[in-house]
Amino acid sequence: MRTFVLSLALSSGLAVSALAAPADYPTEALADYVLGCMAAKGNTPEALQRCSCSIDRLAARLPYEDYVKAETVLRMRRETTGRDQITMFRSSPWAQEMVDKLRRAQLEADLECF
User: Distances in Å between the alpha carbon of 114 and those of 22, 39, 87?
Assistant: First the structure.
């Protein structure tokens, strides 16, 4: 009986998690976010739970297309080549707006999950 209850509890938890996954975010993007978040938070089981919550909440606020655009801006800002094309990602209001939108969504998600 005890094993049955444990199995039921685990399967119920997995079903809830599966339903919470954002439909328009590819699995690779979800995994990348969670792995990066976990590395920043200590790679603990608690970090896994909270980081998974965070990406689910973030995805509920930010369409995947906007997430990709903001992540692209952030990647381009880390470039050190100094090419003129990179400058627009560092100084353009539209680029900053994309990053701000992502950061707001991340902050709100983290407040709910951490």
Answer: 19, 15, 35
